[in-house]
Amino acid sequence: MNLFAIPEILLTLLPGVGTALGLTVAALVLGLPLGLGLAVLARDPSRPLRVTAWCIIEFGRGIPGLVLLYLIYFGLPQVGLYYTAITSAVIGFTYMTAAYTSEIFAGGLNSISGNQKEAVASLGFAPFAAFRLIYLPQLLRVARGPLISWGILLLQATALGYAIAVPEIMSRAYNYAAITFDYSTTFTAAGAIYLAITQAVLLVFRVLLPAREPRRREVRSRHSGPLAAG
Amino acid sequence: MDVLFHGLLGALANTVGITLGALLVGLVLAVPVTWAARSTSPAVSGAAVAFIQIVRSVPVLVWLFLIYFGLGGGMLPLPPFGAAVAGLGIVSSAYVAEIYRSGLAAIPAGQRDAIHSLALPAGPALRRILLPQLLPIVLPPLSSYTIGLLKDSALASIIGVKDLTAIGYDNAQTNMNGLLTFTIIGLIYIGLSVPVAALSRHVGNKVAARA
Question: What angle, rounded to 10 degrees, do the helices at B164-175 and B178-210 form?
């Protein structure tokens, strides 16, 4: 361990933090709606659609992330799709996010009782309004914890970008260590960066954005309202 | 298959070997970690909880590099296979300790008093009372974790173990068919995870039926 090298190592790794966070956010922004879509598709009355959704989900969840990145980076050019390492990584992590979070969303959808569907229909809600105002808030309440866990797992998975030379934290760490031969200090610093980001994200969700209790609009009865006293 | 994939059988053995080896290390190391995390001394339990948090907050690849290049470069030279088993094993111990902890938390505290007041020896108490309750709780998360470990074992290819992923990589470089090669490799991983899930369900049912 060479403590004096730490400032230089941190400066070298810092741009990689931006790449890792950018990959994580991009995969979440693109992957979460796809995950929800897959979860809905997996419950479709049509059997071929259900089976297709199931195959997409199980393949994405069943294969190692590293193999998925190789499949995209080395496989897609064969069908004429040439992507840079970063784009390949975004595609891979988006697919992983969609496949893993579809299971989380499926659990949330299962927790919504079937009676609500009839209530929503009888109240004449438009499908999109019903989804946004009624289903989505309930879904997010159930899925919140697992989705935060997935976000953290995803941030750690971005280290796989090293294997296809995405210039994230681990690629930079390896390149630096290969020149200086100071492997233990460099990788300890890299580990400390991941640790700090993970704990910071957990802190943000626990302290700044704690889980809210379901918000209920107050329904005032005629007798308990402020006028009743007068 | 060896015709299609040069070195497939040896690679399969490496993947399964790393997964089982790391699982074994994790199952054993998790016992003292769990014990420490439940300790009444705040220093001991704090250290165990910090260990679990730190291990889980750092990517597996970082642990592998630290052990293989960091330790391996200096004080403790390890072959890639050994480094992979050690690295994945240490990471597993933190995750498995959490599984043990959740299992133990599900057992009512009054049972400990009951076991004491009946003067049951530790062996039979563990075998006849604790394990039949613990196994059905911990087996499902353990089997999911084992499947996760199988997938994480692919990282061993990065430090030079000739596992399924490495063989896929080598073959894709020569046959120029990455699409098919990595799809087949991916399907082999999925195929390997099916028996784990089935075994866990089978053992879980058996234990639940006997209890």
Answer: 160
CB contact under 8 A, A71 and B59: no
Other residues' Cβ atoms within 10 Å of the Cβ of residue B44:
14
Instruction: Annotate A4-28 with b (16+ C-beta within 10 A) or e (fewer).
Output: ebeebbeebbeebbebbbebbebbb
CATH superfamily, with its number, for domain A8-211: MetI-like (1.10.3720.10)
Q: Give the whole-angstrom CA distance, residue B132 versus residue B119.
A: 19
Closest by Cβ to A156, choosing from B59, B153, B169:
B59
Q: How many CB atoms lie within 10 A of CB A29?
A: 11
The domain spans of chain B are 8-210
Q: What is the pLDDT of residues B79-138, one digit of tens each?
A: 999 999 999 999 999 999 999 999 998 888 888 888 888 888 888 888 888 888 888 889
pLDDT at A102: 96
Give residue for tokens 């005032």.
A220
Low-confidence winner among A76-90, B20-34, B63-77, B181-195 (lowest mean pLDDT): B63-77
User: In percent, how much of chain B has pLDDT > 70?
Assistant: 95
Boundaries of every domain in chain A: 8-211
User: For residue B59, is pLDDT > 60?
Assistant: yes
The CATH architecture annotation of domain B8-210 reads: Orthogonal Bundle (1.10)
Distance of CA A85 to the CA centre of its chain: 20
Contact at CB, B70 and A184, closer than 8 angstroms: yes
Chain A residues within 8 A of B186 when measuring between CB atoms = 59, 62-64, 67-68, 71
Question: Which of the two residues, B9 and B1, has the higher pLDDT score?
Answer: B9
- pLDDT at site B10: 93
Instruction: List residues of A whose CB lies inside 8 A of any B CB.
Output: 58-59, 62-68, 70-71, 73-79, 152, 156-157, 159-160, 162-163, 170, 173-174, 177, 181, 183-184, 187-188, 190-191, 194-195, 198-199
Which residue in B14, B65, B153, B158 has the most chain A C-beta atoms within 10 A of its own C-beta, making it the best mutation to test that interface?
B65
Low-confidence ranges of chain A (pLDDT < 50): 224-230
